[in-house]
Amino acid sequence: MTTKYSDVEMAFEMVSSAQLGENEAYVNIHTGETHWYSSFGDNEQELPDDITDEHKYLALPHKNELNLGKKLVLRFTYQFLPEEEDKIESIFRQRGAYQRFKSILESRSLLEQWYEYENKAQEEALREWCELYELKIVD
């Protein structure tokens, strides 16, 4: 099955834009079509009745399921801010961690570098996930 990377990426970002389990997205493994559902109610169309058929649909993962949440932040920290390891590890034990993390990056002029690092890691992980599930991607 072939699908557009941009469709998979957009669906993945929608799933990852909320807490784990609040948003869902699926790829039809026969047509490549994506379907989305948000628990917040902004759904343009209903999910197909057979969306739970694992032989027909594949659920897109949340970023945390691909180690693109806290683990990615810590990898970035260990590489680019080793002197801030303890502080950032502590921040990520509390709510609102990303905002504080980004404030630290901004004060160090590393915010753009973070976004590039995060985007690259996301694309690599998402392409690996597609390959694992034999989704052929076209750009």
Helical content class: 40-55%
DSSP E strands, number? 5
User: What is the H/E string?
Assistant: EHEEEHHHHE
Calculate the mean pLDDT score and round it: 93
Per DSSP, what share of the residues sits in E-state strands of 2 or more residues?
5-15%
Report strand order across the widest sheet. Answer: 3-2-4
Structure explained in plain terms:
The strands form two sheets. Strands 3-2-4 form a three-stranded antiparallel β-sheet, covered by helices on one side. It has a two-stranded parallel sheet with strand order 1-5. It is of the alpha+beta class and about 140 residues long. It is built from five helices and five strands; from the N terminus they run E-H-E-E-E-H-H-H-H-E.
Question: Key terms for this structure?
Answer:
alpha+beta, elongated, single chain, 3-stranded antiparallel sheet
In short:
With 139 residues, the protein is α+β, with helices and mostly antiparallel strands. The chain contains five helices and five strands.
Write the layout of secondary structure elements.
Blueprint (H helix, E strand, L loop, with lengths): L1 E3 H12 L6 E6 L5 E5 L18 E3 L10 H11 L4 H7 L5 H11 L3 H22 L3 E3 L1
Parallel strand pairs: 1-5
Antiparallel strand pairs: 2-3, 2-4
